[in-house]
Amino acid sequence: NAGVTQTPKFQVLKTGQSMTLQCAQDMNHEYMSWYRQDPGMGLRLIHYSVGAGITDQGEVPNGYNVSRSTTEDFPLRLLSAAPSQTSVYFCASSYSNRGAEAFFGQGTRLTVV
Amino acid sequence: SQQGEEDPQALSIQEGENATMNCSYKTSINNLQWYRQNSGRGLVHLILIRSNEREKHSGRLRVTLDTSKKSSSLLITASRAADTASYFCATVANAGGTSYGKLTFGQGTILTVHP
User: Fold this and answer.
1) How far apart are CA B43 and CA A102, in angstroms?
2) Is A98 in contact with B100 (Cβ distance < 8 A)?
3) For the residues of A82-109, what is the DSSP string, one character each?
4) FRET pair for A32, CA 20 to 30 Å: which of A25, A72, A75, A80?
């Protein structure tokens, strides 16, 4: 099993550009989520999904969109990148939404200039 | 807002010593989890303790949970240089519906184990 795969690993964007961070899991997990990690802030939840076709906002959703058309994929879209979105982004999945352990991808380091 | 507060923010010990990290949280929880993050890598799940459990062991890890004080501790015994990493607690709120899967993380403890 590959687990949770994120692409790209690194990305530099100019302010105002848009892009999609990809996340795929091969464990047939229903629950998927996106976090951002900033120094001294821990991880903060951006968006999450409890199954295909169902998404909801987390703690810091502004400036981001998600969709979940399949169980496997959960892309995160930055609509118009801002320097405040410079961060490390992690995708995670778990086999249920009942508080089970989460499996994390290796992260995408995004810099917005 | 962050659910968990971790203490200390950084811990430096010698190989063979025990390391203790603490986590406090604010709301009623379903369970509390500990994760490890090596520099530049993703998080790896270490252990999960449910709200009706008080102590749990896994290898060199021992986790305690005190729901009356809304706190947890992670003890790593006989530490090794390879244990050097950041350690995070994460809580799952005791709420219904889709809230179960939402992890709320603390800010983490940076552990350095010197050979």
Assistant:
1) 9
2) yes
3) -GGG-EEEEEEEES-SSSPPPEE---EE
4) A80
CB contact under 8 A, A33 and B103: yes
pLDDT exceeds 80 at position B52: yes
**CB B2 to CB A41 under 8 A?**
yes
Nearest CA-CA partner of A103 in B42, B86, B111, B19? B42
- Reported as a single tens digit per residue, the pLDDT across A28-85 is 999 999 999 998 778 999 999 989 999 999 999 999 999 999 999 999 999 999 999 9
Q: Closest Cα partner for A46 from A8, A3, A90?
A: A90
pLDDT of residue B10: 95
- B2-22: per-residue pLDDT in tens? 456 888 999 999 999 999 999
Contacts of B42 in chain A (CB under 8 A): 4, 90, 104-107
Sequence-ordered list of residues with C-beta below 8 angstroms from that of B19, at least 6 positions apart, any chain? B11, B13, B75, B76, B79, B83, B111, B113
| CA nearest to A74, candidates A86, A91, A87 | A91
d(CA B62, CA B92): 19
C-alpha to C-alpha distance for A71 and A81, rounded to whole angstroms? 27
The alpha carbon of residue B19 and the mean position of all alpha carbons in its chain are separated, in whole angstroms, by 12
pLDDT class of B1 with cuts at 50, 70, 90: very low
The whole-angstrom separation of Cα B70 and Cα B51 is: 10
CA distance B33 to B114: 26
